[in-house]
Amino acid sequence: MAGILAVPLKKPSDVDVIKPLKNFLSSTYSSSNNQEDYSEAISEFSKLRSSAIWRAFEKNETALEMMNCYYDQLSALECKVPPNEIQIPFKWKDAFDKGSIFGGRISLTITSLSFERVCILFNIAALQSSIAAAQSVESDEGLKLSAKLLQQAAGIFSHLKGCVMPLLQQNPTPDLNPETLGALSSLMMAQAQEIFVLKAIHDNMKDMIIAKLSYQCVEMYDDVAKQLQKEMLRPLWDRDWISTVCTKQGLYQGIADYHRSLVCRDAKEVGEEIARLEVSLSAMKVAQQSAVRNPLLQDYLNKAKLNLVEAKKNNDFIYHERIPDPKSLPPVGKFCPAKATPLPERFSANFADLFAALVPVAVHQAMAAYDSKKNEIVNAEVLKLRENTQLLNSILASLNLPAAIEETTGDSLPQSLCEKADYVRSANGIEWLDKMIKDLPDLLQRNQDILDEADRMLRDENESDSKLRTQFGDRWTRTPSVKLTETFRSNSEKYRKIISNAISADKSVKEKFGKHRAGIELLSKSMEQLNASVPLGGQSSTPQSSQGGVAEMRKLMEEVEAVRAERDTIEWELKSASTDMKDMFLNALGQEGKEPGVEELNRTYGPLQRRVQESVGRQETLLANIQRVNQELTQERSTGSGQREEVLKQLAAAYDAFKELESNLNEGTKFYNDLTQLLVGFQNKVADFCFARKTEKEELLKDLTQNAGRDAAGGQLPGIPSHHAAGAAGGARAPGESTPTASAPGAPAVHQPTVHQPTPNLPYPIQPQGMPMPYATMPAYGGMPMQYYPTHYQQPPPGYYPGYPQPGAYAGYPYPQQPPQNPPPS
Predict the structure, then answer these.
(1) What is the CATH number of the domain that holds 9?
(2) Which of 219, 415, 530, 728 is the most exposed, fewest CB within 10 Å of its CB?
């Protein structure tokens, strides 16, 4: 379409969106009930971005639809995740490529989905203007499509004008300057109004309507001309932009007065007709002086000349009316059908959310808080059960029960002890414990190495930034690394505290193993060797008078077994109880005062908590009866050998210790393996952050070098580039971490790792809820990315995944976190 000015597109850069998105989603969302695998969605998102940003240069409606789809995906994703948390260094060049004229930037790199969305939205409006300009002025459909697209573009530029600075929180490239966006919005509106004029002419509408439409167009182009010629904006535009606008001012002034003269001719107002035609010709002759050629201008100029000659002739021979002064002519009037179209909720009619299963951050945080509170309740109740069971076992072992009531002769072992020995041997006894304890240092070292590597990357990035800051002084204007990495360093210290607690746990386990090693070795031997190792006792008989006490004690031992079985059941129910809170929290989103989590926790775990309390109360009564009956039996029973009874007590205590060590070592191994995945997720985030900072650093170095080159050529002092102004929130920041001081206000808080002190029954620190646990992504290390794993590991460390016990199968203190969602292949 002749004369329609099309806004140039911003120039994009290719960037890897797959790895940062995978790292973020897996580490942030894997700790909640959201167990989706987004690999396919992320891959489709990457393909969609490539198609959208590069096909836009084809400047057709198919490319526009692709751009609309990508924008909708960005908007949907941004509603669910913090836009500044995903460390993708999006780089976009200035659409007009005139940044250097201002001593500013030609391109800008920001690790923010908001920045990407703003640039895509700008390109949607620019592409709409290009498609509108390509339509035929002779086609009714072309005119309608042009008007629609130009009004949409005007709405987009107007929207961007008000939101760019709050979203970016730093100086943008010149094309995204609010003044520039305001001028582009006005230009699109004026051109949309122009299309309505052309449509009216094309449809042969009434002359007064065309005149009013044209006069409104003149006013709009007057406003555009003033904005384009502002001192700070004038260097941006191509030379013919301002000429074109000035031409259209004169053209539509001429068209307005020409059609108003036709109204006067019909009303036989020849004097005003002549004055209108003279004004029309004068305006169009001024427009004709421009270098921009416009066919419509020449057509109307010819018609106005002919009409003026005819009107003057008629007035001279027939009407003899006085020709009024042009300044005294009544106003033509205005009619403005062009309206900026508000942004729609969805740009694409065929939008399908690739991340539909991903819950919003607020819901995710609510689910994480619910999980944390749930695990707090489960851990507290199971700990209460375990501590009381441990107390019960220790008292029974000190009383040599139930062995004391099973022994009938001095040379045979009690049945209960035989069963305990069978269990220890079936579990590989002392050999298994030795192996598991020897593996602990390797598991510990692996986690320390991963954390050391993350700390090294942070140190290197900070040292590089500090050296360049010293070298360039005030010209090195980006946010210092030490400010952006504060949360990273804080979390690293918390991880080290967790590892320190694990070291204490290892020591406690080894001490308990050393204390009971001899007894466990005996229980690991064959029955013949065990029988030979237990001292013989004299004939032990139970007096007739104590037969009733023995019977009563046996019933009490049966009650003990019933209590243990009941606690196993309660513990399993505590661990397996679950509720899908996703829908509840989604429904409660935005409803103040509604807390479905608290109500659901009370409903699910209240009855189980009461059963735990009843079990504890039942044990108190049971122990009182056991001690009473045992005291009576001790007074009545003759004991053949105190040494034998002492050994039996030690073996009973060794069996209980074996069970505890078995539980602790299983859970300790799982703890270390889970911590490895947490630390790999942390390390990946650090690596993404360092890569984004490296990209930012290279761009700033390039600008400083270019400015220095221009200064050397022109003899001027370098302007201070404002790519990365101190305190800018749009720059690289710690991914998945709490927003630093320099961040945009209102950024959502992120869960911090909490250090839990060892509990009496499980010395290992409890894995904090809300800490990231990335999915397994590469097979080389059972899911750990090779490029970030400490380089001295050439093969997976021994015992890396010794096998995860199933939930509810742990004999020791339960961890709140389930095994990783994607266990490596066996």
Answers:
(1) 1.25.40.280
(2) 415
Q: What pTM does this model have?
A: 0.62
Torsion angle of alpha carbons 675, 677, 683, 689, nearest 10°?
A: -120
Amino acid type, 352: A
Which residue shows structure tokens 């193993």? 513
Q: Is the distance from CB of 542 to CB of 637 less than 8 angstroms? A: yes
Name the residue with higher pLDDT: 722 or 576.
576
Which among 725, 722, 721 is positioned nearest to 708, based on CA atoms? 721
* 754-763 pLDDT per residue, tens: 444 433 344 4
**Integer Cα distance of 87 and 90 in angstroms:** 9
CA distances from residue 565 to 397, 568, 569, 605 in whole angstroms, order as listed:
18, 5, 6, 19
Rounded Cα–Cα distance for residues 588 and 206 (Å): 57
Token pair belonging to 47:
């393909």
Name the amino acid, one letter, at 338. A
* 114/174 same-domain check: yes
Least confident window among 486-500, 601-615, 644-658, 696-710: 696-710
Residue 514 burial (CB count, 10 A): 10
Range of the domain at 724: 439-522+662-826
Residue the block writes with tokens 């009971």: 516
Closest CA to 118 of 74, 170, 150, 85: 74
> CB neighbours of 126 closer than 8 A, spacing ≥ 6?
6, 7, 8, 9, 10, 95, 153
Judge whether 537 and 641 are in contact, CB under 8 Å.
yes
Render pLDDT for 525-566 as a digit per residue (tens, 0 to 9): 888 777 777 776 554 444 444 566 778 877 888 888 898 889
Chain centroid to CA 188: 36
Q: Rounded distance, CA 357 to CA 340, Å?
A: 35
* Same domain assignment for residues 108 and 163: yes
